[in-house]
Amino acid sequence: MRKKVRSLLKWLDAGHKTCPKTQQTLVHTALTPNYVLKSLIALWCESNGIELPKKQGNCRTKKCGGSSLSDCDRTTIGALLDKLTSNDIEQQRAAAGELRLLGKRNADNRVCIAEAGAIPPLVDLLSSSDPRTQEHAVTTLLNLSINESNKGAIVNVGAIPDIVDVLKNGSMEARENAAATLFSLSFLDENKVQIGAAGAIPALIKLLCEGTPTGKKDVATAIFNLSIYQGNKAKAVKAGIVAPLIQFLKDAGGGMVDEALAIMAILASHHEGRVAIGQAEPIHILVKVIRTSSPRNRENAAAVLWSLCTGDPLQLKLAKEHGAEAALQELSENGTDRAKRKAGSILELLQRMEGVDNLQSS
């Protein structure tokens, strides 16, 4: 993977503006690390007892709490914590940057950085007037939050409002990493409530419209995860989530169709979400997705369509007018199990509607 990244950087440094594989013109040439994906991989490895590759070195290893840590890293963390709590902004910035790298390196460092007491001063630095220090602080908290115990420790020191403030007012990098941090923290159900109550959802939706391509995917994942909690669905609808989701569906080349449909499917289960989605008139787009998209997208589109059509004759009539019946018939035969169930249910509704129309016309 590193070799591929080096090759890609060499390609871009040579002035190329196209993908070396497909030759398609690149929308931009900025390489953005996917912190959420890295976090999920690390979390999976921790849960399954798999150690991520470590850098080679000659340092001896000792225990820090319940984990092992090299002498050099232990000494480094202690020294960095002293700098982190100093009044020198240059030292704070450098220390936060080093802790960011150490927290990214392995699971043992994440445990020991937290046990050394770094979380409270890192949270304090979220309000730093120095943008780079703020970026380092929020990204370090993101890396530390991969550890389940650290999630609780970060929330317990009252970090959520400060992370939301970075999400609203920080640099683009800081905002996107704040979104990724909130996503990581939201794995705990009780945190979904706190994050929603802290005003994160409108800020996430704003970033969903303004962020980088990679950042938008991370933000969408955070919104999806938060919306699992019923109370946050209404907040997302009120904050205007439906309009950008519809735009993502219309702009298939933007690469956000998967995320948009996943969020819409979960919002459509809520009354306010169902009403807002219906008002956006998405039926023709949903039918097109059911005809042409991936199995997962077809499943989510069918779930949204089912929510819209159940109990709403007008939406059901629009579905019929846009050719949903043929698309749903094919989906009922070749879709995923859930897609087949949704397609079958909508087809039954269409048949009942047709039967009523026949009676009325006879």
TrEMBL record:
Pathway(s) where this gene product acts: Protein modification; protein ubiquitination
Pfam families in the cross-refs: ARM_PUB, U-box
Keyword Repeat part of the UniProt annotation: yes
Recorded catalytic activity of this chain's protein: S-ubiquitinyl-[E2 ubiquitin-conjugating enzyme]-L-cysteine + [acceptor protein]-L-lysine = [E2 ubiquitin-conjugating enzyme]-L-cysteine + N(6)-ubiquitinyl-[acceptor protein]-L-lysine
EC numbers on record: 2.3.2.27
Record domain U-box: where: 1-51
A molecular function GO annotation: ubiquitin protein ligase activity
Gene Ontology BP annotations: protein ubiquitination
ARM repeats: 117-159, 158-200
Name under which the protein is recorded: RING-type E3 ubiquitin transferase
Organism: Glycine soja (Wild soybean)
Origin organism lineage: Eukaryota, Viridiplantae, Streptophyta, Embryophyta, Tracheophyta
